[in-house]
Amino acid sequence: MPSVLQLVTTAAQLREALEPLRRAGRKIGLVPTMGALHEGHISLVRAAKAQCDATVVTIFVNPSQFGQGEDLAKYPRTLEADLAKLAACGADLVLAPASDDVYRPGHTTWVEVGAVAERLEGKFRPGHFRGVATIVLKLFNMSRAEVAFFGQKDYQQALVIQQMVEDLNVPVEVRICPIVREADGLAMSSRNAYLGPAARARATVLWKSLELAQELVGRGERNALAVLEPMRQMIGAAGAQGAAGEVRVDYVALVDPQTLEPVCEIRGRTLAVLAVWIGKTRLIDNCFLNPDEP
Amino acid sequence: MPSVLQLVTTAAQLREALEPLRRAGRKIGLVPTMGALHEGHISLVRAAKAQCDATVVTIFVNPSQFGQGEDLAKYPRTLEADLAKLAACGADLVLAPASDDVYRPGHTTWVEVGAVAERLEGKFRPGHFRGVATIVLKLFNMSRAEVAFFGQKDYQQALVIQQMVEDLNVPVEVRICPIVREADGLAMSSRNAYLGPAARARATVLWKSLELAQELVGRGERNALAVLEPMRQMIGAAGAQGAAGEVRVDYVALVDPQTLEPVCEIRGRTLAVLAVWIGKTRLIDNCFLNPDEP
């Protein structure tokens, strides 16, 4: 196992670097990222380090998962700082490829995951999960990792990948790690860097509304609308404090954690999930509601 | 390496059977088939045996590559005879799974290969290559074979799979083996079993028309239409001998072997390819035209 962080920039180099580890029967863990690393990513690296013999982190801002008019061009790219963080937390190998090493000219193959990719984010970001599924399968194949780590923050993404892995018999185990939050509850996200001070303050409403949902369910509320309505009101009130249109909801939903279908009554473990624009920044968050817990 | 043919019926059993081979660093070769094995398939097994340490043959009539109204239900199933042939030619391991072990309930993920899958067969069998790409990727993942063997008879299929392998970084090498023909030139195919004696005689026109193309190009013809027209006439004449509509052309084409785009002039290696109905049986065949060879 390499004792210092090794950086490779092509799939061929990655394969070469991993070959001796594979031959030695080492368990390879993969943490796919788009860089601009924060504590959420680092928690995935720590999980990989704890559970595998070698930890591979990929840093690639995948163009195919951004829609037209989305933030591909301005997405934060902080490779130097990312490498320093990865070295500090003991990652073994980083793949940071150029776009044409990943998508050669003439690339035409895409993975379509179906129903679970079509709800929620899929409705608001058509084609997004096609891009996600395709790049993640490519990274699985490049690394031939045995375990891959994803954050619960992108819950639907993790579900889409699990569906793909099962449907296509991909020989990898997908592990989902808990959301890491700032002190005030805001879920860590590379896109938080877009937020100015006023927007940053307003952004706490995502987590606050999820806490409200937990509180209502904790008090015995089982009707989904009776939970969603106060959440929406709270988010609307956060918007009312700023300029018109400063806070805009794409969706706030209570869904079945496996199918992502909306639930009417909260029976059994339910996912509260939302996507909200704070100014020009689109943020997502989620948490589980556990009606059967005391 | 097992010294007698081992039959497994689930992906889990296959993984278990292959685990010791993989740990020992054996090179695994895969021959995916739909059964009803003939000399064409056996030639693939022989190639795998010659080039790999262990040869896995899969027998699965993949429903997702058959269109509505196609011959899924009547496709020949001859497992006992297939196993005898595979034992005789020294295959090591056969996976013959049930359909619901391959496609679990709730399967929704599909691989779409794009342009190269949309021409020729793709036009006449919409969705066919989506089914082919998906099952083949599943079999690659189940077996984690290092090399996989396909016949040139299904040339476009092999091309679609190569495109998928490159685009998705699948860690497998695809090898294409020559077409095996009957004494009179008819390409071996499981579907030849559908042909009655009269149709069987008429079916030789596929290869005869390809030979005609080779002959014309050998004599210096470089104009595609001047090759295609006599081919079509020959095929039409074969039909005229039987009942009306007894021979029907889906396509006869001269195409670039990489893109499958039609060529106007035969410059460099060109693929002559055709799909023809003989009664209710649809047959395909192809050959290369090499204008630069003496």
Description:
Chain A has 294 residues and is of the alpha/beta class. Chain A has 2 domains: 6-177, HUPs (Rossmann fold), CATH 3.40.50.620; 190-287, Pantoate-beta-alanine ligase, C-terminal domain (Pantoate--beta-alanine Ligase, Chain: A,domain 2). Chain A contains 11 helices and 10 strands. In chain A, the strands form 2 sheets. The first copy, chain A, has a 6-stranded parallel β-sheet with strand order 1-4-3-2-6-7, with helices on both faces. In chain A, helix 8 links the parallel strand 6 (147-151) and strand 7 (173-177). The longest helix of chain A has 17 residues, at 224-240. Chain A is globular and about 55 Å long. Chain A binds chain B through residues 11, 15, 23, 25, 104, 107-116, 133-134, 137-138, 141-142, 144, 163-164, 166-171, and chain B through 11, 15, 23, 25, 104, 107-116, 133-134, 137-138, 141-142, 144, 163-164, 166-171.
CATH architecture type of the largest domain in chain A = 3-Layer(aba) Sandwich
- Structural class call of chain A reads alpha/beta
Shape of chain A: globular
CATH topology descriptor of the largest domain in chain A: Rossmann fold
Helix content of chain A: 25-40%
Q: How would you name the CATH homologous superfamily of the largest domain in chain A?
A: HUPs
The overall number of domains of chain A is: 2
Oligomer: homodimer
The DSSP helix count of chain A reads 11
What is the topology, as strand order, of the major beta sheet of chain A? 1-4-3-2-6-7
Q: Measure the end-to-end span of chain A.
A: 46 Å
Largest sheet of chain A: 6 strands, parallel
Largest interface: A-B, 30 and 30 residues
CATH class of the largest domain in chain A: Alpha Beta
Bin the strand percentage of chain A: 15-25%
* Low-pLDDT runs of chain A: none
The overall pLDDT average of chain A reads 96
Number of strands of chain A: 10
Order of helices and strands of chain A: EHEHEHEHEHHHEHEHHHEEE
Q: Cα-atom Rg of chain A, whole angstroms?
A: 20 Å
